[in-house]
Structure formats: structure tokens, C-alpha cells
Amino acid sequence: MSGDRGDDGYSLTEIFAIKFVLADVIIVAALLFAGPLYAVAITALLVVSVFLVWYLTERAGGADESEPTRESVDPVTELQRRYAAGELSEAEFERKLERLLDADERAERAGLETRELSLERERS
Questions:
Q1: Whose CA is closest to 23, among 3, 48, 56, 60?
Q2: pLDDT tens digits, one per residue of 70-90
Q3: CA distances to 4, 10, 39, 55, 58 from 14, in Å
């Protein structure tokens, strides 16, 4: 499914799909066992909760996208930044860059997908 996926969670689309399936089950159960008034009340609460989840997700998502985190910057770009800032000598930069490229090549040979060096792949 599409949507923003965290490394350890569900995408926003999957969350809404799960929520709607569970909501349908709860509403049908309320209609069968409690009556139509309870079913309408539960439906209203579920609709409000969907809008609340959407609002909070949008609000949290906007804050995350405005400023890139250290995890979102690939290692090659981070090395370039450190070299430009004078934190690394040319020899250190070359050695660390070579290690990153070797690690990426080993991962490719092993069949693992790596996004860390996407800049290098785009240039090739």
C-alpha cells in the first residue's frame, strides 16, 4: 500500500484501512446487540476519531518534513559536509568514502537494497 512508512510501523493508508474494517465490525455488532441509537453514536465517535488521527498525522508530518534529520542525509553527503567543514583530512575522506562504496558493493552482491548511496547510483 502507498503512504509514508516508518521502519517499524504501518503506513498511514494501512492504519486507516485497519481502522475502517474494525469500525465496520463494531458498528454491525452494535446494530445487532445494542440497537440503532448506539450504532449511530459509535459511528459518530469513529468518524470523529478518524478526523482526529488525520489531523494529528498531518500536524506531525509537517514538522518532520520541514527540516531534514541526520538519518535522512545519506552517508556520502555527510562525508562531503564534514570534509568541506574541515573535520576530515583528504586522506580520511578518501578512506571513509572507499569503505562506504565497498560496503555498498558488498550489499548489492548479497542482493540487499541500500538507499544510503543513492547519489552515487544516480551519477553512475
A1: 48
A2: 556 778 888 888 889 998 899
A3: 10, 6, 24, 16, 16
Query: Could you tell me if 105 and 117 are in contact, meaning their C-beta atoms sit under 8 angstroms apart?
Result: no
Distance between CA atoms of 20 and 24, rounded to whole angstroms?
6
**C-alpha grid cell, residue 41:** 453514536
Classify 3 in phi/psi space as left (phi over 0), alpha (psi -120 to 50) or beta: left
Give the three-class secondary structure for 56. Answer: helix
Q: What is the pTM of this model?
A: 0.37
Whole-number Å distance between alpha carbons of 1 and 32: 32
d(CA 47, CA 68): 33
Cβ atoms of 12 and 3 within 8 Å: the answer is yes
Phi, psi angles (nearest 5°) of residue 8: -125, 20
The domains of the chain are located at 12-67, 71-123
